[in-house]
């Protein structure tokens, strides 16, 4: 722990050594609030010309909110943006582009039915002659090593090329700052290498790049400077090339000491309730992660938490345990019964319960009332919700009332549609819906993602109480504070490999960082 | 001044009921303009088109005769559309069902027992379901777009019908006219009333009631709604998207095939090269105008049937082309879909002045 603190102090020093104001863009005290959540809390950030600047942070740390304010897609609630020495109001993306700020989004905004040149023409203020534009596209794209054929139809192009279109579209407007939101998440390693060359070339010409990424190795490789956000605040600045991937990870997940008394809640290990053995599954899509020979035993009375940086196989692991993805029977065993090939209803009947990461659209149907959303996961579990094919709306309403009071779900009127609830309240509802069954095995992915502190505390307490009452709880989370607060044992997932769970009392954040940065794979190999 | 659509937090129940009414109102206005543009008195046109057919018992019965197949087909389509399965080929399922239902009375005309009619209806429903399962299987097995495959099968079915009535199934005593032999008494649906209305009409009402209960009260209905709105949540609930696609198509095809068989057995009494004035396509409008709700579909079917009879009426009495019926049906679908926007969005008028002052105060 002290190691991490030293490194943080060093990082802090590095931050102060560097001039706090950037000569291109300087954000001063930027603040943005969404309801109860402060997404950006007095953020200061300086960007210099010709700098590739990484913006790091966990999911929900406020990275996207910050860059959206730079791009004019969100309006700050407080603070100011200084562009080349002058305060500016960026009230829409067009005025951002006029200033020379371009953005490449994580999800592309292209018309599939149109050609490359047509798509680019649509985004330019005065595209001019299409032939001349096509020639310019060919020139610029070749020049920067991102060759494009202007006449190709977007629908026929792979994602890597589509991203090129967005980048070239940006370049044609001769920007001084390009913001990239997780650009490599959709690229193959070769395509990513090519992108890095382009970025380095741009930086050499004096253009600044603000680079959001979860992949710490690539940040170390190409970025000159990094700003780390946590819970909406700048917690640290550093030169990533002087850091290790694990020290960067520690900065992202934070290192405050939290007063949790593990000794008092350490349970006697009971029988195994959930067992994964040799769980492997190929990647279903080019961007999914394959699961590699995962072994895990969750005992009665304990909470095991799986830490990891987003996109390392957490979603795939959840789907394999819940039964949304089928695997070989013996790979998933619930209370001694092999069920890797059984569906989610069968597993629920085995007294297992699941809470997915995505509340709206996965854990709940946005347009259905809460009472109907109770039927969603409990129609097969003998809760009296379904008799001879008919759904009992009275019973659903009764359960809705009960969950609402027990888990303090706040709503503007009785039994609203799921979509109208705030994130925290909906999360209390989807967790409460499963806890209300008193399940023997509970698997929950990101239990408090984007949830305010009060609701998060309530949910964590409920998870601990469930485990202490004799259930086995598996928590998948990217929030290390949460993991250290509730877990009895901690494992780390990295590129679809799971490390051997270690006692939370002896586990350090630094060790988690090492495992996150790839150590989990070696560790899993040894076990 | 700028018009903005603002997303509502929840579906507006009021707008869900009001939107088809607004759509009908806008259609009436558009129809009046159409009549005026084609040089006729718009008020007389609207009266002859929409009101006069309701004033006499014969035309009311004709409206019911035309509404029956559309209501049956639309009920099945509603299940498809609610579950996100875009079956556009009900016309083909109607025709293929009618062919299968006509097999007995045409190929074995001497088979005249009390079993004849029930067997025909079963064959018709099975035939329609089979025809609908083709695009369903192509979708679940090969991910083929069901909009295209189901639509293309319409033309296959109607050309098959054309071939049969001109070739192997042509009436041997029919002076070479392209039509089949007339159905025997045992193969004819019992009539009710003094016109062409058969027991098909009460059958459609029973289907409406059963489907309304299934959709509103049962787990199957719940599954259909969940899968339509959020397939990922449906999978989390343990429902299978593939099985539901097969179910929805089979049900829609079965009902269309049943409607087709009842149409040839009850109204036409024989197979002709054309047995449907586009019921399978108009039923798409009926389904959406009826809010994909069986009871709503019953009302909407009546409105659309009125447009067929009204089209004939204005052609006969005012010399307006009966194509106007198709135009009005198209307008109605257009307005229904456009008005549905209001269910989840609110219209807000934005004056430029307030935004401008907002900028000043911030700067």
TrEMBL record, chain B:
<feature type="transmembrane region" description="Helical">
    <location>
        <begin position="240"/>
        <end position="259"/>
    </location>
</feature>
<feature type="transmembrane region" description="Helical">
    <location>
        <begin position="117"/>
        <end position="138"/>
    </location>
</feature>
<dbReference type="InterPro" id="IPR001851">
    <property type="entry name" value="ABC_transp_permease"/>
</dbReference>
<feature type="transmembrane region" description="Helical">
    <location>
        <begin position="94"/>
        <end position="111"/>
    </location>
</feature>
<feature type="transmembrane region" description="Helical">
    <location>
        <begin position="147"/>
        <end position="165"/>
    </location>
</feature>
<protein>
    <submittedName>
        <fullName>ABC transporter permease</fullName>
    </submittedName>
</protein>
<feature type="transmembrane region" description="Helical">
    <location>
        <begin position="324"/>
        <end position="345"/>
    </location>
</feature>
<keyword id="KW-0472">Membrane</keyword>
<feature type="transmembrane region" description="Helical">
    <location>
        <begin position="199"/>
        <end position="219"/>
    </location>
</feature>
<keyword id="KW-0812">Transmembrane</keyword>
<dbReference type="GO" id="GO:0005886">
    <property type="term" value="C:plasma membrane"/>
</dbReference>
<feature type="transmembrane region" description="Helical">
    <location>
        <begin position="297"/>
        <end position="318"/>
    </location>
</feature>
<dbReference type="GO" id="GO:0022857">
    <property type="term" value="F:transmembrane transporter activity"/>
</dbReference>
<feature type="transmembrane region" description="Helical">
    <location>
        <begin position="271"/>
        <end position="290"/>
    </location>
</feature>
<dbReference type="Pfam" id="PF02653">
    <property type="entry name" value="BPD_transp_2"/>
</dbReference>
<feature type="transmembrane region" description="Helical">
    <location>
        <begin position="63"/>
        <end position="82"/>
    </location>
</feature>
<keyword id="KW-1133">Transmembrane helix</keyword>
<keyword id="KW-1003">Cell membrane</keyword>
């Amino acid at each position: 722990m002290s190691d991490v603190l030293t490194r943080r102090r060093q990082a802090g020093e590095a931050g102060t050594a560097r001039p706090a104001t950037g000569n291109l863009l300087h954000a001063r005290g930027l603040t943005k609030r969404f309801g109860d959540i402060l997404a950006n809390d007095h953020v200061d950030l300086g960007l210099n010309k010709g700098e590739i600047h990484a913006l790091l942070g966990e999911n929900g740390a406020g990275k996207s909110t910050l860059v959206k304010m730079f791009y004019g897609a969100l309006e700050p609630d407080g603070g100011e943006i200084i562009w080349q020495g002058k305060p500016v109001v960026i009230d829409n993306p067009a005025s951002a582009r006029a200033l020379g700020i371009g953005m490449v989004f994580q999800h592309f905004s292209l018309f599939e039915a149109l050609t490359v040149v047509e798509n680019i023409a649509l985004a330019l203020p005065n595209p001019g002659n299409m032939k001349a534009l096509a020639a310019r596209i060919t020139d610029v794209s070749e020049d920067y090593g991102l060759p494009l054929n202007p006449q190709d139809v977007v629908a026929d192009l792979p994602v890597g090329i589509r991203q090129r279109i967005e980048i070239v579209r940006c370049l044609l407007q001769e920007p001084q700052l390009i913001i990239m939101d997780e650009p490599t998440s959709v690229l193959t390693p070769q395509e990513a290498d090519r992108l890095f060359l382009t970025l380095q070339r741009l930086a050499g010409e004096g253009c600044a790049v603000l680079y959001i990424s979860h992949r710490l190795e690539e940040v170390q490789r190409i970025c000159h400077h990094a700003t780390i956000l946590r819970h909406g605040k700048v917690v640290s600045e550093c030169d990533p090339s002087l850091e290790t991937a694990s020290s960067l990870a520690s900065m992202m997940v934070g290192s405050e000491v939290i007063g949790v008394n593990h000794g008092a809640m350490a349970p006697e290990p009971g029988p195994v309730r959930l067992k994964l053995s040799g769980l492997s599954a190929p990647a279903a899509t080019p961007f999914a992660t394959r699961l590699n020979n995962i072994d895990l035993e969750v005992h009665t009375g304990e909470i095991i938490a799986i830490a990891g940086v987003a996109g390392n196989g957490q979603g795939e692991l959840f789907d394999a345990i819940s039964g949304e993805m089928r695997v070989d029977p013996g790979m998933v065993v619930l209370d001694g019964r092999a069920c890797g090939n059984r569906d989610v209803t069968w597993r629920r009947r085995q007294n297992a319960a699941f809470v997915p990461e995505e509340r709206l659209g996965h854990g709940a149907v946005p347009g259905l009332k809460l009472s109907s959303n109770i039927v969603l996961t409990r129609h097969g579990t003998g809760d009296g919700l379904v008799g001879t094919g008919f759904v009992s709306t009275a019973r659903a309403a009764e359960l809705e009332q009960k969950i609402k009071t027990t888990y303090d779900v706040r709503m503007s009127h009785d039994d609203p549609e799921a979509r109208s609830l705030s994130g925290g309240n909906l999360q209390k509802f989807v967790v409460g819906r499963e806890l209300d069954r008193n399940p023997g095995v509970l698997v929950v992915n990101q239990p408090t993602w984007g949830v305010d502190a009060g609701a998060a505390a309530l949910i964590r307490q409920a998870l601990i109480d469930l485990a202490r009452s004799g259930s086995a709880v598996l928590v998948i989370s990217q929030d290390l504070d949460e993991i250290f607060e509730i877990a009895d044992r901690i494992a780390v997932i990295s590129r679809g490999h799971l490390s051997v769970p270690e006692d939370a009392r002896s586990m350090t954040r630094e060790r988690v960082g090492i495992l996150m940065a790839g150590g989990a794979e070696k560790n899993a190999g040894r076990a | 001044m700028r018009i903005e659509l603002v997303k509502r937090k929840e579906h507006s129940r009021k707008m869900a009921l009001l939107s088809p009414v607004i759509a009908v109102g806008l259609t009436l206005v558009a129809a009046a303009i159409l009549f005026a543009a084609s040089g006729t008195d718009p008020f007389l046109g609207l009266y002859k088109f929409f009101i006069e057919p309701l004033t006499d018992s014969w035309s009311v019965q004709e409206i019911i005769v035309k509404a029956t197949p559309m209501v049956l087909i639309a009920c099945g389509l509603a299940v498809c559309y609610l579950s996100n399965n875009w079956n556009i080929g009900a016309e083909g399922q109607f025709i293929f069902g009618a062919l299968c239902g006509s097999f007995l009375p045409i190929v074995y005309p001497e088979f005249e027992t009390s079993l004849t009619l029930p067997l025909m209806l079963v064959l018709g429903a099975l035939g329609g379901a089979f025809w609908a399962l083709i695009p369903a299987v192509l979708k679940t097995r090969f991910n083929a777009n069901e909009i295209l495959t189901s639509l293309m099968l319409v033309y296959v079915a109607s050309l098959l019908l054309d071939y049969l009535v001109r070739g192997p199934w042509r009436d041997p005593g029919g002076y070479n006219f392209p039509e089949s032999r007339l159905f025997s008494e045992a193969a004819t649906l019992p009539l009710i009333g003094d016109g062409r209305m058969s027991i098909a009409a009460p059958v459609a009402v029973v289907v409406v009631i059963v489907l309304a209960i299934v959709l509103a009260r049962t787990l199957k209905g719940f599954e259909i709604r969940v899968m339509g709105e959020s397939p990922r949540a449906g999978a989390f609930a343990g429902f299978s998207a593939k099985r539901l696609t097969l179910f929805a198509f089979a049900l829609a095809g079965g009902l269309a095939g049943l409607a087709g068989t009842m149409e040839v057995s009850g109204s036409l009494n024989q197979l002709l090269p054309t047995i449907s004035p586009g019921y399978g396509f108009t039923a798409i409008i009926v389904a959406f105008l009826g809010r994909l709700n069986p009871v709503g579909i019953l009302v909407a079917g009546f409105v659309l049937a009125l447009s067929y009879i009204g089209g004939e009426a204005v052609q006969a009495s005012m010399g307006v082309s009966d194509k106007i019926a198709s135009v009005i049906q198209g307008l109605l679908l257009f307005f229904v879909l456009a008005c549905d926007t209001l269910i989840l969005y609110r219209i807000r008028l934005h004056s430029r002045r307030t935004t401008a002052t907002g900028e000043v105060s911030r700067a």
